[in-house]
């Protein structure tokens, strides 16, 4: 087959007869086909004609899907929350799995709330607060140890004089106190209990 004028974007299939490649039209396939003007329209929201093809665009709040349709980007699948989310009245809210976490500045990831520094933590008088990611726990104060007494765990005073964990001088006596100890130089010696002369 001979096409006297040629087939610019297509192939010659018979005497002066062209079969155009997709996206082109005209007797010699030299014109761009405006796909955006076709019925049915190839794009759900916005269409932009390009040379030999076209591009689809979506309105704000929507995301272009592989099939050319526009899906709401305000869905949990689109938002990419760290710990999941909920959809309320068309709005997507990321969630945090515990009360000890709060949404960070990007509204997608969760950051820790330090209950120990904010004063939200409640620990008994002989326990101290230790912050953890998403929570906290109460640990025995220094000078106390956790023991199981009368069907419950409690922080009880460590007797440093009995356990020999004091730093009293060789010439001093150890006196146990609540949560700590004192050192007193024995008779005939002077000092602070840690140094006796």
From TrEMBL:
Residue ranges of domain EGF-like in the record: 32-71, 112-150, 157-195
Domain of life: Eukaryota
Transmembrane segments: none
SUPFAM superfamilies: EGF/Laminin
InterPro entries xrefs: EGF, EGF-like_Ca-bd_dom, EGF-type_Asp/Asn_hydroxyl_site, EGF_Ca-bd_CS, Nephronectin_domain, NOTCH1_EGF-like
Matches recorded under Pfam families: EGF_CA (PF07645)
GO BP terms: cell adhesion; cell differentiation
Subcellular location per the Swiss-Prot or TrEMBL entry: Secreted, Extracellular space, Extracellular matrix
Keywords assigned by UniProt, alphabetized: Calcium, Cell adhesion, Developmental protein, Differentiation, Disulfide bond, EGF-like domain, Extracellular matrix, Repeat, Secreted, Signal
UniProt-recorded Gene Ontology molecular function terms: calcium ion binding
Main localization category: secreted
Signal peptide positions (record): none
Gene3D superfamilies per the UniProt record, alphabetical: Laminin
Family classification: Belongs to the nephronectin family.
This protein's name: EGFL6 protein
Taxonomy of the source species: Eukaryota, Metazoa, Chordata, Craniata, Vertebrata
Originating gene: Egfl6_0
């Amino acid at each position: 087959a001979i096409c006297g004028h040629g087939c610019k974007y297509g192939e010659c299939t018979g005497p002066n007869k062209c079969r155009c490649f997709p996206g082109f039209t005209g007797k010699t396939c030299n014109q761009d086909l405006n796909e955006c003007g076709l019925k049915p329209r190839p794009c759900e929201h916005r269409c932009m004609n390009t040379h030999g093809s076209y591009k689809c665009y979506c309105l704000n709040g929507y995301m272009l899907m592989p099939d050319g349709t526009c899906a709401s980007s305000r869905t949990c699948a689109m938002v990419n929350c760290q710990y999941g989310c909920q959809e309320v009245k068309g709005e997507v809210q990321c969630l945090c799995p515990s009360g000890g976490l709060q949404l960070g500045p990007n509204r997608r990831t969760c950051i820790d709330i330090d209950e120990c520094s904010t004063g939200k933590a409640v620990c008994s008088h002989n326990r101290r607060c230790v912050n953890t990611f998403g929570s906290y726990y109460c640990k025995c104060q220094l000078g106390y140890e956790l023991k199981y007494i009368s069907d419950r765990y409690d922080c009880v005073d460590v007797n440093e004089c009995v356990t020999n964990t004091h730093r009293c001088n060789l010439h001093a006596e150890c006196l146990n106190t609540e949560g700590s100890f004192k050192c007193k130089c024995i008779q005939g010696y002077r000092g602070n209990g840690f140094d006796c002369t």
